[in-house]
Amino acid sequence: MDYLAITGLRTDGRLPSEHRRVNIELGVHASGDGSAMFELGHTKVWVTCRGPRESSSTFGVSVEVSLAAFGTMERRKQNRVDRRARELSHVLERALSRVVETKTFPRSRVDLQVRLIQSDGGLPWACFNACSLALMDAGVPMRDLCVACGVGFVDQTVLVDPNSSESMVFGNSSSGGELWMAIAPREMKVVCCSFIGKISPATLEVLTSSAEEGCKQMFHVLSSYVGTFYKDLNQGEELLLENDEDE
């Protein structure tokens, strides 16, 4: 498969260092304390947050990931899909527990329900970004956002935010791979990282640096949207108060 054209662009028109189009919506689920929809290209994830609420044990973050059978073109056995969802749930729980202020609400818990609506690659980092936004929308205190991005490597080329067709190339290559990481961007601390493939230590260093840069780009997108969202929300509330005073 040719993943780069003669012009140096990828099959979907992106530069190698460019992530896919991002679309974000907050407050998409009325029954939750917070919710978010995160769309990365054709990958779409919906997260509902409930809590903090009372718990018999110490503070904890619980994550349930559900992969819809119709959400991907890839057909797998149900037990394999369930196992992948459980593994991703555990990874999200451990990583998010590192950025949530657990001491603020002792003996309480936060529950996150993650629903994959559509998948075209990049599921792990899409889930991380969606969960981080849902926690923020619910007002759960966090030391930092948890922002994630992935990169792939094949034929001496690094591709940021690979889609599913590009990920298949990395998986079939004898000297390539895919790396994704989640960071706390303000502190620039890695909270989670995963790599699959075969590359040299020097190449791994390049991939890590590219993934960090991708996370910084994603953080800029998320923070810009959040700032605009709450600015518009506050302006709307001020306008309602002014109208009430006039009446």
Describe the 3D structure:
The chain is of the alpha+beta class and 247 residues long. The chain has a single domain, classed as GHMP Kinase, N-terminal domain (Ribosomal Protein S5, domain 2). Helix content is 36%, strand content 29%. The chain has 4 helices and 9 strands; from the N terminus they run E-E-E-E-H-E-H-E-E-H-E-E-H. The strands form 2 sheets. It has a 5-stranded mixed β-sheet with strand order 1-2-3-5-4. A 4-stranded antiparallel β-sheet has the order 7-6-8-9, with helices on both faces. The longest helix is centred in the last third of the chain and has 46 residues.
Offer a few descriptive terms.
247 residues, alpha+beta, Ribosomal Protein S5, domain 2, five-stranded mixed β-sheet, four-stranded antiparallel β-sheet, 4 helices, 9 strands, globular, disordered C terminus
Short description:
With 247 residues, this protein is an alpha+beta fold.
